[in-house]
Queue: 2 jobs
Job 1
Amino acid sequence: MMCFKAAVPRRGLLRRVLSTGLPTMWGAVAITFKLTCPLAQENGLGARVVTSAVFFAVGTGLIIHVRRALLRELRQARQVAGAAQSALLRPLPSRIDGLGVAAAQLSADRGATIGGDLYEAVATEHGVRVVMGDVRGHGLAAVGTAAAVLGSFREAVHDEPELGGVLRRLDRALARHLRERAERDGTVAEEFVTVLLLEIGRDGELRGLNCGHPWPYILSGPRVEPLSCADPLPPLGLFPLPDEVPVLECGHLLPGETLVLHTDGVEDARDGRGRFFSLPEAMGKASEAPPQSVLGTVFTELLHHTSGTPKDDVALLVLRNDRQHQPTPGARGTARPATTYPQPTSHL
């Protein structure tokens, strides 16, 4: 262990020496040739050709060295970003309490691997609880906000018996994070998060809370329908939550049915002619496929629609009920209530 710790700084020191020493050496070779080599002092055509060749070789070597150094730094930055993404959006298992699971994120910036989209699915004693969200904005600030919301969710889903309690925990965590960031940076940012919370019971019963996020779709055989048509609450961070947070009863996810959660970057994607991407049509091509195939089909169709250049970050989470037992008698898998949330009062 001692030898390993000693080797790490030595390796870093060697890289720094090479990064500064090689260009210096090449420059010294060029200057020495020009000042001391008799051939470089002559004005004939042959001498000029040789001198030009020497300086061309030195310049090419410098360019190659700089390019390699930049590529090495880019690889290191991407490795750090990948590690941060793995810590923020932990890879989900392929099965959670009898549900098939697949999830992925696609960044609009090819040079970035993390953003403000967030998702998680956790098996608890209250059922499988799922969150899908989208932080306003991009960059490290959005990543920090997503981390604060996700961290609070991962604790609250086990502690809170009701979804309303989970949502209030997320709201408090977001407010605390924004307040601490304002005290640290001296600036107040208008930042909000859209959040969708779902709870899937052992009998497939679906219960949900929606704060400004697109409702998911449910795939039942060839049919593709929205899970609910209820008006969502405002995103977290814009208004205080109302005193009563009504949880919507969204029917049941029957065995064989699939639930697809997404961020608004999916349905807002446009092609070169300004036409929006049809998510239901894309899902219909893989309605009875396993979650990973649904995920792959949607991303393939999305990239084809946008010519490989989506303008916004995209996140998808697919859940399929692979359980064998049936839900409670009389439950309808695609029955969705037309409940509306009470509108909150602005305190601004």
Note: The CA atoms of residues 97 and 194 lie 26 Å apart.
Job 2
Amino acid sequence: MRRLTELYGIETLSARYLKQTFRPHAHDEYLFGVIDGGVHAVWCRGEMNRVPQGAVVTMRPGDIHHGGAGSEAGWHQRMIYVPEAGMRALLADITGREPTGTVDFDAAFHARPELAQRFAGLHEVLHASPQTLARDVAIDAVIGALLRELAPQMTQPATEPGGRISDAIDYLDSRVEEDVTLEDLCAVTGLRRRQTIAAFRRATGLPPHAWHLQKKIGRVKRLLRDGMAPAAAAAQTGFADQSHMGRHFLAFVGVTPAAYARG
């Protein structure tokens, strides 16, 4: 489990359970998740459910639930716990209006394998990425996808403003070594979080964290060509460590930093 204090106090959980049994309980937060493997047998909203791999979970604050393994193999789940204040802030940003009441997705469990797969990928970023901007974009993408696909009535599109995206691009390009946040970019663009991400993607073809990452790799390449060691290059470009930099370098360049430096 990980707690993202800087991101509304959201908590993320990735766990595999074999014999775990949960007593009847509820959460103060919204609970969003996916069953990533196996089967979870869980009682919620008056009935027992066998929730298999590929199912998306959406629970409201106060939803009583309990259960355990639905098979001998147990189950693997990825969960995001979003405090009500954080959910209101995310909804206001996504919809452009202040939400009222509790958000309800009509059911607690949804057989949506494609959405579940996207959720799992974004959850991994939230749960494991050391980059603040990547986590910022991931939570907006997760909540946005859930709303668009499971509660589309809440996300009627409005006219999208352009904002000062060229200034945001310059801002990222000049801060390759920093851990920039989405709030930093919003201050530059004059837009809300979702608007900034959408406008940035329209202008560049990439979300802001991916743009920043490719700029970091470009700087690493120059440093390696100048003879700097990979570990030092990783430190100078704001990566968590050499291993973190190396994974992204290979994905962008197709060779390891060491191989690139030798070439």
Note: The beta strands are 2-4, 10-17, 21-25, 30-44, 47-52, 55-59, 65-69, 75-82, 109-111.
